[in-house]
Structure of Dihydroxy-acid dehydratase:
Amino acid sequence: MTQRRSTGWYGGDDRNSYIHRAWMRRGLPADAFDGERPHIAMANTASDLTPCNAHLNEVARSVADGIHAAGGIALNLPVVSIGETLVKPTAMLWRNMAAMAIEEMLRANPIDGVVLLGGCDKTIPALLMAASSVDIPAVVVPGGPMLTGTFRGVPIGCGTGVWQLSEEVRAGTLSAAEFRRSESAMIRSRGHCNTMGTASTMGLLAEVLGMTLPGIAGTPAPDSRLLEAAHETGVLAVRMVDAETRPSQVLSRASFLNAIVALAAIGGSTNAVVHLLAIAGRLGIELTQDDFDRVGSGVPLLVDLQPAGRFLMDDLYRAGGLLAVLREVRDLLDPAALTVTGRPLVDYLDDAQVYDREVIRAREEPLQPEAGIAVLYGNLAPGGAVIKPAAASPELLSHRGPAVVFDSIEDLHARLDDPDLDVTPDSVLVLRGCGPRGYPGMPEVSNTPLPRKLLELGVRDMVRISDGRMSGTAYGTVVLHVTPEAAAGGPLAKVRTGDMIVLDVAKRRLDVEITDEELAARAPSAEAAAAYAAPTRGWEKLYVNTVGPASTGADCDFLAGSSGWQVSRESH
Ligand code: FES
Ligand code: MG
């Protein structure tokens, strides 16, 4: 056995090792420090202010039992947690900060491995980014989705139901009191959003990447089987330390390409593009936005979940779960991609079965023959933009219409419902200043509401274009992540109301019908610029000065890559 990392703290008889041991004893057995037993942290995003992750302390106890049963020492490490629905101005602003803080605490502490406990949207990406940059043995336990709630006798999906019901309120078909009554129907139990939003997507993709015990992602948060899986993961973490199974050995380009295939087959969130690019960037794995289109866009959509479809995560689990979906697209998966167990992912597909063909379709009878994410280019998005055709209205995927431009989210809220707003169902709603730098943090505001007067006419979708993101629980013909963003000098800052915009998803084009000369000669909107973030200190300033474009994962430039697990100096 090579010397354990924690022995660098606890081994020896000098003053420093005395200090490290003495303060840690507090009831731990003497053999905790003999260099045999691996010290394993549980990087735990449990927080009352991250309600989707609040149950993770209980999950951590099961992980700890597993670690102890296998001879390890389990250490709870509360880490920065981000609750999607609460933090302002947007959870995404804090993803890189959380990843940075988690990375440094994993490196600075005497641990040999780590179990990553996450759930709510940004938490699993931040944990994986951190673990990748430290590269100590790491395994994820996804916190799991909520149970299905019902309202008015029918299932109501987290997030997706909010968008639907709030439009009903605006259209005058649902009372404010009923709207409020739906709150506790929607959030029925512990766990994260149960639609195929970002949390569900990233939990499932953590498994496709090989970073969970295979077969556990998507287990509902209140399900006893989650605790069983947590226990088993604790045992596995000890074995991983003994085998020195590091993220850099598990994660390869093949793992990410498999994740792209899965993302398409499950109909996952567009946010996964940004998160997977950022994780790959930590490992130095070459992955581009174009890989998503190239590898994913021919993959059939097999899972019928909200927001685009009918069912919820509970149903997916009941129907056979992720491995059953992957079995349908097995031929598209790279068999070389490994998991934390040391075995390839595809080894786990043989026994997977589909129990409900309504939820998980057969390969021959997909919901859509081609799903995935389309990457568009054009004079409006020289660095690319993304759209999820499966969540869009087919008739809008090729569209020409006049722009109605909003310079900020405040501008949009102030004018959208104005009866005098010059807008028709053919208009293209453009919202700018919502990129990583401009907002700051690239919020999920790009699935803008529709103007009230059009809603009242029965219009339910329009082409929308933005440099921001969209909630994974949302839907519509929305072009997202326009790069470069307006605040970084992108042409989006030069579009004017009335310009004709042409969207052609089949040709992968997004253009504004003005000549190159005119576009070059136009000044960017001063109104838009006035709304861009201009922080003077703190994390926001660091973030705005260093964040990269969405097209490469919106990580901060100084955080890309890995610093490894070594520490340079003693503290005493
Ligand atoms: Fe936490 Fe949706 S708000 S997963
Ligand atoms: Mg979300």
